Amino acid sequence: MRICLVTAFPPSRGGLTEYGFHIARELQRSPFLSLTILADELPGKQAELDGFSVIRCWSFDDPRSLGRLWRQIRELSPDVVWFNLIFSTFGRNPLAAFCGLTLPLLTRLTGCYTHVTLHHLMEGVDLEDAGVRFPKLYRTAGTLATRILLKSNSVSVLIPAYRKVLMEKYGSRNVHVRPHGIFSQCPEYPDFSRRGNPVQRILAFGKWGTYKRLEPIIEAFGAVAARLPDARLVIAGGNHPSTPGYVESVAKQFEGDPRFEFTGYVAEELIPDLFQSASLAVMPYSSATGSSGVAHIASTYGVPIISADIGDFRDMAQEEGLAMEFYEAGNTQDLAGRLIGLLESPEQQRKMAEQNFSAALRMTMPQIAYRYLRHFDRERKTRMLKLIARLRKLPVWLPSRAFLNSAITRSSVAPIYRRNLFQPSSNGHGPKSVDSNGSGTSGVERSGLGVDRDLVSAGRNSNGGTGLLWNGISSTGTEGESGNDNATGPSSTALPTPVHTAANEEANQSEGQPAGITKGPVFPFGLVENGNGKGHGGNGKNGARRSGSGNDTDRIRFGEHRSYHFHRSGSGNDTDRRE
Questions:
Q1: Which helix (H) or strand (E) holds 235?
Q2: What is the pLDDT of residues 385-397, one digit of tens each?
Q3: Own/partner pairs for 140-144, CB < 8 Å, 24+ apart?
Q4: What is the Cα–Cα distance from 491 to 193, expressed in whole angstroms?
């Protein structure tokens, strides 16, 4: 499958560059896809990132970009064109921005499947707070642009409330809700030894100058520093494109004050160290434009979050299970009180940090990419089936009918993704581990490996409780049930293939096992019991190949797993019983 991703892309610093980069990186991992990135042009000569096919064919604030992009898409003729958009992706100039937002409709008219990931809605943006001169005119144009975007084949939004607006106000039925996701293949367990040692670091991260202002947090920090002298305020990130020079003007006022640290733009490789050393992250916004990327970065490293009480952020926290404390927007005294309360409570910091880390496990970028590709694959197969249905209406005597039907069927079942391709890989940061008996609360055993989503499932713990199971260790600090209460999780993520042999059966019978029943290898998801008996040979259900003699019972305990393969020799009437 050929996919074109239309997005701002590094080393550009336009809107949504980070999101576009991480989505593209996950798509590149699939050998069944051909990815071309249609990105914004760079000022001057800058080297492209290795490993990506990038065509720089549009410019910010240039209405002529519409024609160049459309011609490039027609030339490539992809199967899917995926737009990563906010309303100002193509420019701050109203004409350039509006022209760019009509491109998904024009692309669909060329016959390509068109999908839009829309990060905010005009209805949720406070235009006056963002400094827009003619808010009513912008609101009208935004409503028209939204209707045009909804003419795409499908649209994804990141907050359930947005889908409700699009369905109720615009009558759209092709809108899906998908999580924002974290900018990582695997979250990092919080390193509590670095937090508050030797100082408490409050991190404010973002592009500053419009609805993200530094004055509220600086004013609130004065009260925090008076109560906690060891507190430090770290202001990371650069200027919003609409407010050049803003951060520099604020930094100049506190030059020489050791309590304030201004980092400027933070490179990708420096972000882990910045967040791991922070006691908490603060989001002093006056309004919001959708789901927050800063909150998802903070959850990647298990950082507690204090945010302005804004509807979009509350919806995001509730939907994704993030641990966030809210203060009244614009009330610096309330903000100072929340900061002091959290900094003086290490227990609450730890609790919020672990909850955010747990939430991050459920929305890694490989999982997000997998959801999108599964949707594209389903839509492709649906179109193929509709075409086959039309072919069946042709006369039976038509010579080309069988040939066309066969050709279309072969192309429709070709894979475009594999589930195991989108498993997180090692990020090189291993936390403190838990003993093999599951006791302790200092961390989770990873041994430098990423989290395998297929090994994280809901199940029963050995103590009768419930929780997440990760590689045999439950989120409650005890071992997960794996066939019996005394089973231990595997030492690696490799799944053994159980093969029943006569030698295994004899060995088990010599140990006093009942005749006809042998214990096979222990899967990460349960115990397999093999046997012998009389019956048939051939291919059984669920990918099991069976032959042999005797009455066999395969008993498999599993949580969320639905796909498994095993081989047995023998013959007989086989019964599969799953619990």
A1: strand 231-236
A2: 887 777 777 776 7
A3: 141/94, 141/98, 142/87, 144/98
A4: 26
pLDDT at 423: 54
Nearest of 493, 494, 439 to residue 461 by alpha carbon: 439
Tell me: pLDDT of 443 over 80.
no
Report the alpha-carbon distance of residue 246 to residue 239 in Å, rounded.
6
Residue entry with tokens 């990708």: 268
User: In degrees rounded to 5, what are phi and psi of residue 577?
Assistant: -120, 120
End-to-end CA distance of the chain: 38
Q: Is the pLDDT of residue 531 over 90?
A: no
- Round the CA-based radius of gyration of the chain to a whole number and report it: 28
Indicate if the pLDDT at residue 513 is higher than 50: no
Q: Of the ranges 25-29, 425-429, 449-453, which one carries the lowest mean pLDDT score? A: 449-453
3-state secondary structure of 369: helix
Contact 369, 26 (CB under 8 A): yes
DSSP 449: P
Token readout for 47 is: 């080297």
Rounded Cα gap, residues 378 and 370, in angstroms: 12
| Helix runs in 179-243, H state only | 215-227
Element (H, E) at 407: helix 400-412
- Tokens 């391709």 sit at which residue? 421
pLDDT band for 59, please (50, 70, 90 cuts): very high
Beta-bridge partner residues of 556: 578
Residue type, 272: P
Contact, 454 vs 524, CB < 8 A? no
What is the residue-wise DSSP string for 30-79? -TT-EEEEEEEPPSS--PPPTT--EEEEE-TT-TTHHHHHHHHHHHH--S
Cα 437 to Cα 385, 488, 489, distances in angstroms? 51, 7, 9
My answer on whether omega of the bond before 11 falls inside 30° of 0, hence cis, is yes
C-alpha–C-alpha distance, residues 150 and 148, integer Å: 5
3-class secondary-structure state, position 434 = coil
As a whole number, mean pLDDT of residues 275-287 equals 92
HSE, CB side, 13 Å, CA atoms: give it for residue 273: 6
β-partners of residue 568 are: 500, 546
Answer yes or no: are the C-beta atoms of 306 and 342 closer than 8 Å. yes
State whether the Cα torsion 37-288-155-416 is positive or negative: positive
Q: Is 509 exposed, middle or buried (0-12, 13-18, 19+ CB in 10 A)?
A: middle
Least confident range from 39-53, 73-87, 291-305, 442-456: namely 442-456
Q: d(Cα 518, Cα 528) in Å, to the nearest integer?
A: 9
Q: What letter represents residue 315's amino acid?
A: D
Contact 336, 220 (CB under 8 A): yes
Q: What is the reported pLDDT for 202?
A: 96
- Whole-Å CA distances, 378 to 154, 344, 384, 413, 415: 12, 51, 10, 10, 11
User: What is the C-alpha separation between 405 and 259, in angstroms, rounded?
Assistant: 71
Domains in the chain (CATH in brackets) are: 2-177 (3.40.50.2000), 192-361 (3.40.50.2000), 430-491 (no CATH), 499-578 (no CATH)
Question: Is 98 in a helix, a strand, or coil?
Answer: helix
User: What is the C-alpha to C-alpha distance for residues 151 and 330, in angstroms, rounded to an integer?
Assistant: 38
